[in-house]
């Protein structure tokens, strides 16, 4: 059992329509070189996950993600400072994030937001950094990729106070149907990770049922949050296919319809080539 827990899940059958993994961390999955990235995305493509957005949570990861997005045409990047790392977020860090965010293959400012689960950064520091990232996304005309953990009300309040960018993506959406409805009414996009496949995630199930096409994405947040029935095992972008199939079953829709919705929404949100 111990060895099995360390093994990657099997690569599922290829989806009938290719999709985008809207949020992953290729570096945390173990990729270091261009060859590593290509091997990982090759596995994803075998499952019908043709493109990925690799996401940073600190400056070192942001530099790597920005560089990695130039190694493979199937890879794009998002850069920001994760809310748990905002205890020290001054002018030097802001300048570097902005420089990287201006990259041609950087398609989003993220992940940024609020995390009240961990006690690594004071709430006021997180909120100040979140406001700065919101402004950056608006100035650059790029999507805002939000991390929201146990902070729904403050996240929504700050978006209202600052004025949300044109495109807002709630990465690994963790709210219930009530929060989902408020986000949908604002035009925000909800991105569902492997957590939506967990049997006890009833609130997420209701949220995924109500969100209309054009306002939901699928992601892995790899190497974390591996979909059921492989929960606890390592995750990679190809596992997006498991989540897409689960969403189709949950919504009572055909797999190709959900996959098409996931792909076209990602293309619009991140301004990817069709």
TrEMBL record:
GO terms for cellular component: cytosol. It holds the Pfam family TatD_DNase. The keyword Transmembrane helix does not apply. GO terms for molecular function: DNA nuclease activity; hydrolase activity, acting on ester bonds; metal ion binding. A divalent metal cation 1 binds at residues 23, 25, 111, 221. Keywords: Hydrolase, Metal-binding. Signal peptide: none annotated. InterPro entries: Metal_Hydrolase (IPR032466), TatD-like (IPR001130), TatD/YcfH-like (IPR015991). The keyword RNA-binding does not apply. A divalent metal cation 2 binds at residues 147, 171. This is TatD family hydrolase. It comes from Amycolatopsis dendrobii.
């Amino acid at each position: 059992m111990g060895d099995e827990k360390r093994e990657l899940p099997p690569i599922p059958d290829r989806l009938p329509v290719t999709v985008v993994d809207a949020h992953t961390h290729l570096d945390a999955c173990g990729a270091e070189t261009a060859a590593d990235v290509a091997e990982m995305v090759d596995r994803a493509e075998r499952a019908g996950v043709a493109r990925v957005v690799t996401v940073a949570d600190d400056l070192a990861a942001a530099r790597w993600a920005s560089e990695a997005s130039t190694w493979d045409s199937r890879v794009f990047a998002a850069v920001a400072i994760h809310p748990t790392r905002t205890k020290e977020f001054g002018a030097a860090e802001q300048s570097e994030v902005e420089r990287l965010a201006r990259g041609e293959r950087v398609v989003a400012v993220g992940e940024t937001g609020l995390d009240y689960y961990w006690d690594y950064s004071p709430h006021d520091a997180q909120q100040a950094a979140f406001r700065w990232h919101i402004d950056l996304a608006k100035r650059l005309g790029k999507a805002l990729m939000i991390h929201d953990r146990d902070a729904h009300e403050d996240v929504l309040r700050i978006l209202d106070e600052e004025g949300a960018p044109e495109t807002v993506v709630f990465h690994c959406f963790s709210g219930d149907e009530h929060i989902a409805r408020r986000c949908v009414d604002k035009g925000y996009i909800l991105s569902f990770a492997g957590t939506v496949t967990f049997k006890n995630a009833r609130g997420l199930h209701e949220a995924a049922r109500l969100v209309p096409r054009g306002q939901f994405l699928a992601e892995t947040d790899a190497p974390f949050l591996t979909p059921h029935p492989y929960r606890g095992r390592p995750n990679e972008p190809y596992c997006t296919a498991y989540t897409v199939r689960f969403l189709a079953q949950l919504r009572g829709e055909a797999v190709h319809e959900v996959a098409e919705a996931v792909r076209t929404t990602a293309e619009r949100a991140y301004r990817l080539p069709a």
